[in-house]
Amino acid sequence: MILGFKELASVCAAISAGKQAVLLRKAGLRESTADSVFAARSFYLLPTQYHEKKKAGSTEGFPVSLRVHVIQSGDLLEWPNIEKLLPLTAYDPKTIREQFDSRDEKLLHFAHIRGFRLDPVWQLASSPSLSGCRSWFELPNPPAGIKETPVPETDITLQTARLLS
C-alpha cells in the first residue's frame, strides 16, 4: 500500500530545502490520537494550506514533490523537549503548543525523517478520497519515470538527529 500524509506546504518546502527533518502530529479532527502515529516507514507528503493562508477556490490537488523515509518515530511527552525542536522546523510554535495541550493526552507523535525530492513533481488531482481532516491517505501508484534524489544533510538535520537520539 502506498501512503500519503497531509502536511503544511511550508513544512514540505522546509524539508525539501534541508531546513527540517522531523514531523510532529497530534491527530486530525476526525482521528484519534492513535490513528495519527507514524507507523509507516515510507510515505509521500501531500502539501496542504490548512492553518495557512489558503488560496481562494483552490482545487488544484496536491503537487507531491517529496517522499520521506522514517528513521525513528515515537512520542514526545514533555513540552521542553518539543520546544527544543521547534527552532529546527517551519511549524508555528503557538499551533504546536495548542496541539500538544489539546485532548486529555499531552503528547505529540514525531517522525525523524529523511526526505527524497521527486522529479518530476507528481500531480495528484483533487478527489473526495483525498479530502477531509485526516492525516493518512491511500494513494495510487506514482507515475512511471519519477526519480528520487535524497535531500542533503545540513546542520539542521544533524542537530535534529542529536536532539532525538
Shape: globular
Low-confidence stretches: 51-57
Taking all residues together, what is the mean pLDDT?
88
DSSP E strands, number: 7
Order of helices and strands: EHEEEHHEEEH
Helix/strand-derived category reads alpha+beta
Q: Terminal Cα separation, in Å?
A: 29 Å
Biggest pleated sheet: 7 strands, mixed
In terms of DSSP E residues, the strand content is 35-45%
Radius of gyration: 15 Å
Helix amount, in percent? 10-25%
User: With helices defined by DSSP (H or I, 4 residues minimum), what is the helix count?
Assistant: 4
Describe the structure.
The chain is α+β, with helices and mostly antiparallel strands and 165 residues long. The chain is built from four helices and seven strands. The chain has helices at residues 9-16, 79-85, 93-101, 155-164; strands at 2-8, 22-25, 42-48, 62-76, 108-124, 136-139, 147-150. The protein is globular. The two termini are 29 Å apart. The relative contact order is 0.29.
